[in-house]
Amino acid sequence: MLFELIRLEFLKSFRSTSFAKSLMVAIFLGFLAIMLLGYLLMAGIFLNRILQALAEGQDSIVVLNSGLIFFFLVEFMYRYFLQKLPVIELESLLHLPIPKKKIMHMLLGRSFFSPLSIIALILFTPFAFTEIASQYGASGAFSWLSAVVLISWTLHWFMLWFKQRFEDSLIGVVIVFIILLLGGGSTYMGWFNLGELVAPFFTIAMSSFLPMIGMLVLCIISYYLAFNYYLNNAYLEDLSAEEEVRFVNQNVGFFSRFGMAGELANLEWKLIIRHKKSRTFLMLSAFFLLYGTIFYDNSAYQSGPMQHMFIFVGSFITGIFMINYGQLFLSWNSGYFDFFLNLKGGVENLIKGKYLLLLSISFLCFLLSIPYVYFGWKFLLIHFATFLFNAGIMIHLITYLALWKPKPMDLNKGAMFNYEGVGAAQFLMIIPMLIAPYLIYLPFALFFNMYAGLAALGTVGVIGILSFNKLSTINVNRVLKNRYEISSSFRQEL
């Protein structure tokens, strides 16, 4: 039965109308995965030297055992964003005369065959059988490596349950933030060193098989946790009902004050929170609000030419959603763009509604970035000036570039390693976005000081805001001029 299911999957792939396109994408991603895994193997081979360079005079095994917990915290984060759920094939399998248990085992087993499952094995195997084996023997190296790999595999099965149970809900986001805060933030802020608390577990694993056995049991438990959840919810209506109820009637009240454009902004907001890809963009924007912690407390950027880097950071923080979501400006509506063509004033109000939504969330990002004043008042001024520039100038620039040959995409697919809707404009967009703020800021900052540059940046942003109707008309007219060409491209099969 297992081989029959595998055969059906192959037939589905080969008979797909987009087989050639999917094959090319698979080859590209496979090459990328092999290249990244090769880099990991090289890092594993030289891991001992890397640890000795980072912690001179300390035992590299002790240093690694203290740092392993942070590796698994990173793994938890990238699995949360990258790991795919094995439920997309249920629609094509549940109607077949096959026991649901076998379908679940097949789907879960197939999800395990991923480059993510061998990262820990590739990275730590060379270190285990060179450094640990020399001090604790081959059995100690095997026991330690098995415990490390089993933790990674436990995270795989746990994440399958966690994402299906909490993905896109407020509880899931809160849990991820708490793990990030307690994991990395506790050590960074000096509350407690999580690595030192967990290190004894890995130290014991080098001389005893008990940690390995414990992690094996935990791995099996996590597998059956995922298996039972998927089995009990292996009905299409059960897997989708909770999501439909969760996101029904999620309106933003003040949008209704802006007429038809506000109503369409409300519809756009519903689109964001009801679809997997757009929700991922929204969540990534929230995570990137922490971007400033990398730079604002780093002494290397506090003076000299490097302090001008803060302008990019401020633009990125206050405009992250505008950048992420705005770069696919019309592609989000590719499935029903014809509806707006046949609606009186539909295209104009759609564009203005998107502007309203992007400006509202960018303003929210600015408000959420106010706590950066903890690092100094100048950072609040930087965020305020860059927000004004983003609202007055960058939003029109991003929209103009995004309207260059927009492409269709499926909103229900995940965002990671999904290049639907992405064209050359999205890759080239970063260049003017990096340059534009500095064209205004640098002349004043270099001839006078940083505050003069911020004043110039904010002033240009205010002028752009006051000229909003004229600037937005440029992009509205551009869409109207090319509306039939855009509509035709959106009708192409993905």
What does this structure look like?
This protein is an all-alpha fold and 494 residues long. It folds into two domains: 31-245, no CATH class; 257-490, no CATH class. It is 73% helix and 0% strand. The protein contains 23 helices and no strands. α4 packs across α7 (119-166), α15 runs antiparallel to α17 (346-368) and α17 (346-368) packs across α22 (468-481). The chain is globular. The model is unreliable at 239-249 (pLDDT under 50).
SSE blueprint and pairings:
Elements: H1 2-14, H2 19-45, H3 47-54, H4 60-82, H5 90-93, H6 100-112, H7 119-166, H8 170-189, H9 194-205, H10 210-232, H11 236-246, H12 259-274, H13 276-287, H14 309-318, H15 320-326, H16 337-341, H17 346-368, H18 377-402, H19 424-428, H20 430-447, H21 450-466, H22 468-481, H23 483-490
Helix pairs in contact: 2-7, 3-4, 4-7, 4-8, 4-9, 6-10, 7-8, 7-9, 7-10, 12-13, 12-17, 13-15, 14-15, 14-18, 15-17, 17-18, 17-22, 18-20, 18-21, 18-22, 20-21
Give a quick set of tags describing it.
single chain, 494 residues, mainly alpha, transmembrane
